[in-house]
Amino acid sequence: MISSTPEQRFRVAALYRFADLPGYEALRPELAAFCCERGIRGTLLLAAEGINGTVAGTPEAIDALITHLETIPALKGIEVKYSTASEMPFHRMKVRLKKEIVTMGVPEVDPVNQVGTYVEPADWNTLIADPDTLVVDTRNAYETAIGTFSRAEDPETETFRDFPAWAERNLNRLKGRKVAMFCTGGIRCEKATAYMKLIGVDDVYHLKGGILKYLEEVPPEESLWEGECFVFDERVSVRHGLEEGDATLCRACRHPLTPQERASPLFQEGVSCPHCAETRSEADRARYAERQRQVELAEQRGESFPIGTPSEKHKT
Asked: Which residues form the Rhodanese domain (predicted)?
């Protein structure tokens, strides 16, 4: 993994914008070249409904990319959350064409033209502290496992495609109430509010900029956030001030792990953790153990890792 100096930490940009983007296919080669020429890594997703992604690079490179995206008329005003990483958190640069920039699987949803009410991080506590507000975490179960807001309801979804079914099952509870929704960077909860509007839940709100913006702007002593926030890169999690957290990944099942879970007798680096130890066959465990052995040998030789480069916080 590429390391930075204390003076030049990598800048990480989580970005998205719902927009009518009919010519999105033509942007793929241009954006791929732009990023690769500047050493930017990560993933950008393009679809007719807009752009979504997380990328990392030098501060100058990331600033150049955002400036470039803002020159595209449909993407002007793009939502961006910045954080830093001591090591490059991605292995390569990918620009992909998709049907949706966040996959819900409901074609009728139109987050470009109909969404809930944005709530700034500074106003979020007042909204979710109201006992009449139903607070809903629109992330998936493996994300909510290491942190969420107090009083938040967890739909326990495995993928965002499962969210509409949860909403339909709970429609009677949702209608006629204030519903406050949140997610990591704002994109899933924004699309979720569009779906709520579609099914007749009108008094719906979502956290502008998501958990990342909240952790950046709200002081820890005023915060209603509990735990750490899962992020989709090699940092694994962040906490208040968007500092890198203590969570790591199980390299067998990709579930985030707290330090307490890593201390479990069911945890074996690269092989198993409390979330998957009892569901893996002996053949699986043997395969994972051999893979971990290859990772350790590569580390000794100073070479890249086949399943992700563990930083110092991943080592026991």
From this structure: 129-223
Name the residue with tokens 């955002």: 66
Distance in angstroms (rounded) separating the CA atoms of residues 280 and 297: 24
This prediction's pTM: 0.88
CA distance linking residue 271 with residue 288, whole number of Å? 5
Write the pLDDT tens digit of every residue in 31-81: 999 999 999 999 999 999 999 999 999 999 999 999 999 999 999 999 999
Q: Does the active-site annotation cover 229?
A: no
In order of 44, 63, 133, the CA distances from 92 in angstroms are 11, 19, 42
Task: Taking the CA atoms of 120, 245, 52 and 106 in sequence, report the sign of the dihedral they define.
Answer: negative
Under DSSP, is residue 72 helix (H, G, I), strand (E, B) or coil? Answer: coil
Set 35, 183, 250, 273: catalytic member: 183
Residue 113's CB is within 10 A of a number of other CB atoms, namely: 9
Q: What is the pLDDT of residues 274-314, one digit of tens each?
A: 999 999 999 999 999 999 999 889 888 877 654 544 444 44
Least Cα distance to 101 among 46, 160, 31 occurs for 46
